[in-house]
Amino acid sequence: MESESLPIPNTELSGPVLLLTTPFTQLNTPYPATPFLKGFLNTRNIVSYQCDLGLEVILELFSAKGLTDLFKEAERPGIKLSSEATRMLQLRECYFRTIDPVMNFLQNSSPEMAHAIASRKFLPEGPRFSQLDHLEKSFGRLGLQDKAKHLATCYLEDISDLIKDHVDPFFGFSRYAESLGRSASSFDALEDRLVRPPGFIDRIMTGLLEKKLETYKPRLTAISIPFPGNLYSALRCGKWIKENHPSVKIAMGGGFVNTELRSLSDPRVFNYVDFITLDDGESPLLHLLGFLNGSRELHDLQRTFIRSGNTVIFENGSQEADINMRDKGVPDYSGLPLKQYLSVLEVANPMHRLWSDGFWNKLMLAHGCYWGKCAFCDTVLDYIKRYEPCRPVEIVDRMEALIRQTGCRGFHFVDEAAPPALLKDIALEIIRRHLTVVWWTNIRLEKRFTDDLCRLLKKSGCIAVSGGLEVASPRILKMIGKGVTVEQVATVTYHFSRAGIMVHAYLMYGFPTQTEQETIDSLEIVRQLFRNRLVQSAYWHQFALTVHSRVGIHPEAFGIAKVDTPPGTFANNDLIPVDRKGCRHEIFGEGLKRSLYNYMHGLCFDFPLREWFGFPVPPTTVNHNFIRNVIRNAPVHEFSPDSRMIWIEAEPRLKCRAKNRKGEHRRIAILQILMLTAVVEIQMEESLGNWLMALITDLLPDKMPLTVSAVRKRYESAFGNSFEEFLQSGIFEKLRETGLLIL
Ligand code: SF4
Fold this sequence. Notes:
Blueprint: E1 17-21, H1 33-43, E2 48-52, H2 53-61, H3 64-74, H4 83-90, H5 92-106, H6 113-118, H7 136-142, H8 144-166, H9 178-181, H10 188-194, H11 200-216, E3 220-224, H12 228-244, E4 249-253, H13 255-260, E5 275-277, H14 282-293, E6 304-308, E7 311-315, E8 361-363, E9 366-367, H15 382-385, E10 388-389, H16 392-406, E11 410-413, H17 420-432, E12 438-443, H18 451-459, E13 462-470, H19 474-480, H20 486-499, E14 502-509, H21 516-531, E15 537-542, E16 545-546, H22 550-553, E17 561-562, E18 574-575, E19 577-578, H23 589-600, H24 626-632, E20 644-647, E21 653-661, E22 664-674, E23 679-685, H25 686-699, E24 706-707, H26 708-719, H27 723-728, H28 730-738, E25 740-742
Parallel strand pairs: 1-2, 1-3, 3-4, 4-5, 8-11, 11-12, 12-13, 13-14, 14-15
Antiparallel strand pairs: 5-6, 6-7, 9-10, 16-18, 17-19, 20-24, 20-25, 21-22, 22-23
């Protein structure tokens, strides 16, 4: 199969582009790469189709027919079944009878099945169900549908365990053969697996792929590889296409490629692919299509690896710039079976479920990160380094277009870190257009997320944010260059929680030079954040040293050395740190994760921290009430003369009447503010009431914004009094508590 020649354009072959996501990414919603690319190709009138082979394999496998084949495969000669698997196979008729209704239920098309599933007299229960008892408390809060979803998820996980133990150890719902893709400095293990006959999952996948190629007859198949858990299946698809449709060209790109394959030099990879592109895919793909049409020379491609003879060459002769965010078009989900994605519920935690439950339209607000300084992050790579925001009006236009297209009003802004100023303007635009949406995104937990901004975001539909707290230690946060302090994070999460927005925190342990004491103190901060309900969910990652981070480039500046391993010929990203000053980080992983799991379920806050670890650890040095004190003493939001005043509730009503008091006649006004759950009335002098009504009308979001200094001038020219007095008054305080924001 190995070709010694350069890729040649096949100008004879016309046809569309087939965009593929290979097993496995997510079950609940499409990975955004193919809708993003398809949306862009639409702007150039290039016909394309897309498919999520990951979802399609799952749907085929988790069906009565799929389970019949699976159970037969598990019983093949020479396989010794575990007692759990034997029991499952004995109950096979129960699985065949229940699998389709369960899948329909998880696709939200048979909600009535919740009654049967939650009764615990319907599904066969394997080992995953034995861990359920302590979750009854959470189910009580979550309700029938969620309880059934969680039980149905356990049922699928039992089947998944059977697959892993007896059919295919590489299987996982959101990754496949991930171990082959992780830190694969050599291509040997992948090659070894790829030259073997296709396995059970491979056969399902290529059977589906065959139908796609017959239906769409593409000239180019572009495969997205966002994670190491998609790599093997992408290469397996490439192999099948080359063997069965040799005229169809194959390109690969995506997050995994962008971080891991930048120094690729093993020519064997090109037995499975013709082109591998780096960074944003739109422009390299356009270049490739030009080459395949015969209108562009090979050396004129953009950021594209090819094989020439037995050498890998990086072609990047094009002088053309990348596609501007503005010109990327609206993501296009057409062709994806949106109603067939599965809402699974692994953890009974309302924030955590956003990743696995329900469909979300995905959008990017900006390319890159507006901060771009964190020491562990890939700050030298284009996807972080090149910051380019979209205009708020364009983003909200795209949201409206996506609602028309998918019928869904939920948005996940998949930015690395959405900038507060841009979020503010988007929120105002959403409110101005009276658009009803819900959305969530990733942010930096930085101080610009004031109480007022969080309330504005909530008003515009924000339900959750995720952000990096990393190591909750002042010294390490400074080393990282995160630009936040623990106190600021506590204050910002307080603002979000007051506004009713959930927070997920990304946590890290094992940063260079981190001591045992700092790890325990960091855990104590996390415990207090959960206990005070400032954070609803979190995840601990162990620090990984990567080539494209500041720590990877200058390890000595962070007190570590890196093990010098010869550069690999395939993936090159992870480095091995030598941290002589820090503790043995890896031993903390299990205890940190166990404690977090309990905190996320609202449990074990009073457990002494040492109990989470099977070895002695120092007591925490963090004050027991540290977070509570930070919140109590949180600085009051101060605004500047240039801050903008906005009224976010409905326009109030004003009622005026005469009032007699001890023979004194005067006119008073009652300002009625209609909140969602109550009417708030504020009594004042009639003149002030009239002035305020006029002001509030001018502060509505669809008006030109007024600054604090402009309002000050209006007040002082109307009343001659000091504006400061008004700012200190109970009337102003009530306005601030209801609809008046200062941003
Ligand atoms: S870690 Fe997040 S905030 Fe920091 S530079 Fe990377 S993307 Fe930006």
